[in-house]
Predict the structure.
Amino acid sequence: MAATPASGGAYSCETAARTREWMEALAAFLGRHRPLLEAHVVNFFKDRMWELVDAEWMECLRREPVESLLKLPSGCVQEHWPATLREFVLTARSLVIPREQKAPQSLVPDIHVASIGTVLAQGMNSKKKHEIENLAAVVHAIAKSCGAKTVVDVGSGQGYLAQALSFEYQLPVVAIDASSHHASVTVARAERIKKYYAAKCVEKQFLKVPRTITCHVLSSDTLAAVTLGACKDDNGEHLRETKACTEKSPQIQEPTQSSPPLILAGLHACGDLSVNMLRVFVSCEQVKALVSVGCCYNLLSEDSYEDTNTCPGFPMSKAAKLSELVLGKSIRDLACQSAERWRSLTMDIALQNFDVHAFRAAFQMVLEKYFPEVSRLSPSIGRQGKALRRQRLRKVVESQMAKEKIDDFSCSTLKEQNANTGDVDSVIYGVDTGPDDIHHDERRKFALFKDFTLSGLCRLGCGSVEDTSLLEIWKDVHPFSEYIGPFWCLRAALGPLVETYILLDRLLFLQEQSNLVEALLFPLFDPTLSPRNMAIIAWKLSANSSEA
């Protein structure tokens, strides 16, 4: 394999020493900006978080076009920015691991990336299809090069990767997932696909259907036991069955001659699951290689931060354990930010996102003032509530736009209309504060905030708040809402650094093992399509090849 180590400008992870050097530089930079890292936009107005940032920076960025703000996390600066701001952005970007997709051929020269047909791709969106095509090809090539006979798909979900490996590459696969529903879907889907491939085959060919295992993987010991148990005496023939594992600490079976050489594969294996894969790769003799793409860093367990009796998901490497850098859930969550996704946003969508952040921060002020007991619980409105609010906000915006097209309301007409719903302009803005279109935009923003608040209060089971009270809060926070976009972009610029540190920690854990393990980070997917695109690829070398 033509291993090409990742590098970030002056930094490299080609050796353990170089990886440690990179991580030390990251830890030092992140340490200097910890207040910005730990800030949560929910408390933006309550804690006056714009004051955490250099006043000259905020004054400059609040005047910037949205397009410039969206490029900031990617390292794009403007000449007229303060020198210290330019230095912050450029230094941050220089520490980030390059994420531009590399061709799989640069990893394995003779690799063949099969295009997934419509039958196998059924149910996949374009993102998932892109991921499965590239990952399946790499897993097949690595398995072939290291002599692995069976693939263990960890966190298999609905079985997309497992089925691509089985039907397109004719590899035996064991699919492990915590959801019994996912296992049922995987089995049913595989049977449908098998019928298509059976009819397509001219010569008689044994079609391998993935074996599904339902198991909550609570530790690397559990994963090792399930993996070896599922593959023992398999002889390359996978049964169409679903097995359930409920043991918390199952006994690890010793590898036998009947246990085939294995390769572990994982597509966005969640939280500690990706970490447990690395530990099993190191500890289990039968596992010859690993291809893992992680995600959900916020769900990682963390040493010195969370009470856990198991090996933590972070840190893994000896060097990181000796470091004073502690992340915590909020900072790990920031690691999921994608500079590529920010850069690809349209101006309208970006402004809507900034507005939603402003509404959520203003909503927190409502909770603080009228429902302090709820606020103290640090409530999460949840994904369902967020989806509902965005849907309702979209309807309000569309309704406002439709009204603008039908009638050119005069200012007095709008005031009369809004008076019926408690939206009294004079309470907030006065009468003669500027052009009518500015009045209308401010009225529209308050209407959206009010709708957001009503939805949030309903979600939390709180009572109602009078419109005039909401107006008072909106009047207090609205002048500072223009700082939300710049603040969030500056914080988003730190996200890729946190992800880089977590990825390097995992790589260094493998590099610290011995000279019999080869490991690298490889940008396998298009980061705009799939932001979590970095694969950790590792394989074991024979003693002879190591000495050579």
User: Anything to note?
Assistant: DSSP finds 22 helices and ten strands in the chain. Residues 2-7, 235-253, 406-438 have pLDDT under 50 and may be disordered.
